[in-house]
Write a structure and sequence with these properties.
The chain has 306 residues and is of the alpha/beta class. It folds into two domains: 183 residues, NAD(P)-binding Rossmann-like Domain (Rossmann fold, 3-Layer(aba) Sandwich), CATH 3.40.50; 94 residues, UDP-galactose 4-epimerase, domain 1. The chain contains nine helices and twelve strands. It has a six-stranded parallel β-sheet with strand order 2-1-3-4-5-10, with helices on both faces. It has a two-stranded parallel ribbon with strand order 6-9. A two-stranded parallel ribbon has the order 7-12. β1, α1 and β2 form a beta-alpha-beta unit. The mean pLDDT is 92. This is GDP-L-fucose synthase. GO terms for molecular function: GDP-L-fucose synthase activity.
């Protein structure tokens, strides 16, 4: 197949491109340095190729409190990106199936994190703007599919982790921040300070697992929204304890700053639809995935001296 990937230099985009290339597909991969998706017409240069798949992974966001500090910019930039990609898809690549990412923060607190609730209620205030840009992306997919007969798949992932995370100074998802801080504590004999009280709960999916599931689902599902999660969540204290075991750091030296931003208290996706679509799928156990990730961080990136 001929495939087109936006956000190709990101954590997920890089892994997907490597997998597609290994599977023998012809991949056209674009990142923000090569193609400014905020600009109308930025994708016109790629219109002469007839693509079978368009993977739209590009988004302007970061982990931590980034969404809290940039709500207006996030709305403008992500709406520009998504509108330009969907318009190009509709006009220039209508034969292609578009696969894109939603976000778990689009789900409203107090409602089950199930697909039928993706557009229901009000997202958490600190992530409100970004959540709605992802909701609007899904609305756009549905509208274009209804009017023009296009095909899409929108996947809502849990937090992704694994080897190969970015090292360009952006804020990190919580699991990489935990690993970096605990590695630094172990190396320099320092105490570790984590945000929140440690009882907030999170769900993780190993990057390679997600890519494999994405490729299976895109061949089976048309015009659907599907959660992709592990189906279980753990406290920050639990994750920290596992990382301490892997690094030899004393967990009694960890302190918690309850004044710092932590986002939602719980975030675990309802994966009943995923299990029905792929009943044989199995996720990599958390301890195994964390061991791989910690080894990669130790050897390659996120140096604990920073």
């Amino acid at each position: 197949m001929r495939v087109f990937v936006t956000g190709a230099t990101g954590f997920l985009g890089g892994a997907l491109c490597r997998r597609l290339g290994a599977d023998g597909h012809e991949v056209t991969a674009v990142g923000s340095a090569a193609c400014d998706l905020r600009q109308a017409g930025a994708l016109e240069r790629y219109s002469d190729t007839v693509f079978d798949r368009v993977y739209h992974l590009a988004a302007w966001t970061q982990a931590g409190d980034f969404c809290l500090r940039h709500p207006g910019e996030q709305w403008l930039v992500n709406q520009q990106i998504n509108t330009n990609v969907l318009d190009w898809w509709r006009r220039r690549q209508p034969q292609a199936k578009l696969v894109c990412m939603g976000t778990s923060c689009a789900y409203a607190p107090g409602l089950a994190l199930a697909e039928e609730n993706y557009l229901a209620g009000e997202p958490i205030a600190s992530l409100f703007s970004y959540a709605h840009t992802k909701r609007m992306l899904y609305v756009g997919l549905r509208a274009l599919a209804a009017q023009y007969g296009l095909r899409y798949l929108c996947l809502v992932p849990s937090t992704l982790y694994g080897p190969g995370y970015h090292t360009d100074g952006r804020q990190m998802h919580f699991i990489f921040d935990l690993i970096r801080k605990i590695l630094r504590g172990q190396r320099y004999g320092e105490p570790v300070l984590l945000w929140g009280d440690g009882w907030q709960r999170r769900e993780l999916v190993l990057l390679d697992d997600f890519v494999g599931l994405m490729l299976q689902l895109e061949g089976r599902c048309d015009n659907q929204l599907v959660n992709v999660g592990a189906g279980e969540e753990f406290t920050i204290r639990h994750f920290a304890g596992l990382i301490c075991q892997l690094t030899g750091y004393d967990p009694r030296r960890i302190d918690y700053d309850t004044a710092r931003y932590v986002g939602a208290q719980s975030k675990c996706l309802d994966t009943a639809k995923l299990r029905a679509l792929l009943p044989q799928h199995r996720m990599t156990p958390l301890a195994e995935g964390l061991a791989r990730t910690v080894r990669w961080v130790e050897q390659h990136a996120l140096h604990p001296s920073t």
